[in-house]
UniProtKB/TrEMBL annotation:
Alphabetical list of NCBIfam families matching this protein: matE
Described purpose of this protein according to its UniProt entry: Multidrug efflux pump.
Keywords of the record: Antiport, Cell membrane, Ion transport, Membrane, Transmembrane, Transmembrane helix, Transport
Localization in the cell: Cell membrane
Name of the protein described by the UniProt record: Probable multidrug resistance protein NorM
One Pfam family it belongs to: MatE
Membrane topology designation: Multi-pass membrane protein
Family affiliation: Belongs to the multi antimicrobial extrusion (MATE) (TC 2.A.66.1) family.
Membrane-spanning intervals of the chain: 39-62, 97-115, 135-156, 168-185, 200-223, 267-286, 292-314, 326-345, 365-387, 394-413, 419-443
Principal location: membrane
Amino acid sequence: MDHNNELLTGNFKKNLLKMSIPTMLGFVLQAVYDMVDMIWVGRISSSAVAGVTIFSTVFWLVNILNDVIGTSSISLITQSYGKNDVDRSRKIVEQTLAFKGLVAVITAIIFSVLLKPLLNFFTDDPEVLKAALDYGYIRMFFLPIMFSSYSVNTALRCLGDAKTPMKIMIISSVANIILDPIFMFDKIPGTNIPGLNMGVFGAALATVISIVISFILGFYVLLKGNEKLKITIKGLFQLDWEIDKKLLTIGLPTGIEMLMRNLSSVVTLKFISLYGTNVVAAMGIGGRIFNFAFMPLMGINMGASTIVGQALGANDIDRAKETARFSSLINVIMMGVLTLFAIIFPEQIMKIFINDPDVILIGNTMVRVLTPALILAGISMGLGTVFTGSGHNIPFLIASILSRWAIQVPILYFSTRVFHLPIIIIWFSYVAAEVVEFLIVSIEYKRGVWETKRV
């Protein structure tokens, strides 16, 4: 069987949709259970929402390592597979699982020790801190499983199989949605069925169980193998430094970019916390809403990155360009529709998560100001697939540093510390950062350095 002709022949639009739609559906459902988590947590208290929000912001600092290795693996697997080098593709998949698991264990140990001091940086409210710790410690304990579950799904997509990861994500998402109310409340809301009354800890427990399910199913598929590729247990216990070095270095600019972005999120959250718990709660809900909005973009992004990587492996530059541009167009259409809906119905969206009128009032303005920026983000992510597919990830780093640290953070500092401006300026700082990021990604795409980059 010629593995190359699956995504690199025929109509590129049809191939992109074939890869992207299943991935998009899987990610959207995953975002739904993130939103359901926040809806249930909102039924506990605004302090619980604030605690989960603060932990989630800190937790994404940890996820940088996952992004570094994951981004590297996309370039390595797709380009090897595009060259029809199945043996090397298999070895890269094995090394990704083994190396990322080892990194996750070390990270989980270190971060668990540092978790409470990090959380204390954001709040001295005992209820908020307790909620963050209840939610956080168990998430850290299962970090290796979380990293590995991402890897198995990414590997399958890179090989051109988008449907299997979609099915896995649907199963794990449904499990999380079902388990949430059972674990969190003394009675399942709307029924007389008794629950386990674990509160915020129950939400975290439901999440980690769904992650374990996702990993087991994906790992089984890779181990069983198919006509594309089959991993071996032996390969998981042999570190290959030549590959592992590339897993660390190719995605390093993306990792630093994520670090700078997440550090800016930490700083932003610190500035936001100056406005009080209600604003932090609104931002936490907003984060889940925008995470949901990004899931379709992620689906298109992953599908396009796979095709771009395989096209570059086969030295088909035109197909890579066409794929990136078409993915940007799809993103603009999707985000345009979503933006229109959010601007018309912000209050109804906020009320899904919480009944506190003060939080809803803050959230209304936030939703209306921030959602239009999703259109620019869609273009940036679509064009940026050429960087992920080629392994030329420096543009992401440049865009993040300039947009977050040269634009957003200074706006936040002067708005809160010097001029004491209203909270709406916080929301506009996100828009300003997105505009700058869009401009930088567009310029770097047109420069074309990525066209000659191979890993």
